[in-house]
Every structure is written in C-alpha cells, then in structure tokens.
C-alpha cells in the first residue's frame, strides 16, 4: 500500500552557488558521512560532478521528506537520510537513528529514482507500507 509520494527538482547552479558561498559547510549539513566522502572525491576530480552529486542527494532527500509526510521536521533530518545503492547499482534510501526507528514502526520501504542533466537534478520517491511477514 502506498504511504506517500514525493518529487523534487533542484537547480544544480543554485547548489554550485551555495558551495561557492559556504564551502564545504553546505555539503556537511546535507550529506551523511558516506555521501560526504563520495562528494569530496568527485569534487576533487571534477567540481561539476560534485555539484551534480550534491544536487541529486538534496533533491532525493526533499522528495523522501515529502513522501513520508514530514517535510524537514523531526525525526527527518538531512544527515539521517542517506542515498545508497543496491548491489545492482539501483539507488536506495538508508535511514539512520530516530528516522530509521520512525520508518520501521510504520513498516515503510522506499522506491526511488534520481537523475541529473546539465542544470537540473530530479528525484522521485514512493514510500510504501510493507507489513512484516507472519508465519
């Protein structure tokens, strides 16, 4: 059963401007530790790739917050929601701390998609209720 749907579009140029103005502090506020490491590596090789990476994660976290119906209020937090990848490469949501507990209590699982193209990043998230299997 669908719990909620969220989508977001982000202007990569806006993210680049935030990084130029605030430096790494902006990325540190938005990205979980694993994402921050990847962002640093990509930014060091090619800053534009770093901006795209940060923009897709920003958009996904916004879409996720809309799908779960909380927006950016507790227990939702930028760093408590992480975009990971399944072994197949498919993006997935990894939750941490209080957000993980909140989602677990509601038996939520997520289907996500993200993409970027030159100036924009877009993300889509479906939160679905998947009751535990009873034997």
TrEMBL record:
Pfam families: ACPS (PF01648). Mg(2+) binds at residues 8, 62. Gene3D superfamilies: 4'-phosphopantetheinyl transferase domain. Its cofactor is Mg(2+). Keywords: Cytoplasm, Fatty acid biosynthesis, Fatty acid metabolism, Lipid biosynthesis, Lipid metabolism, Magnesium, Metal-binding, Transferase. InterPro entries: 4-PPantetheinyl_Trfase_dom, 4-PPantetheinyl_Trfase_dom_sf, ACPS, Ppantetheine-prot_Trfase_dom. One of its GO terms (cellular component) is cytoplasm. The keyword Coiled coil does not apply. GO terms for molecular function: holo-[acyl-carrier-protein] synthase activity; magnesium ion binding. It catalyses: apo-[ACP] + CoA = holo-[ACP] + adenosine 3',5'-bisphosphate + H(+). Transfers the 4'-phosphopantetheine moiety from coenzyme A to a Ser of acyl-carrier-protein. Belongs to the P-Pant transferase superfamily. AcpS family. This is Holo-[acyl-carrier-protein] synthase. The gene is acpS.
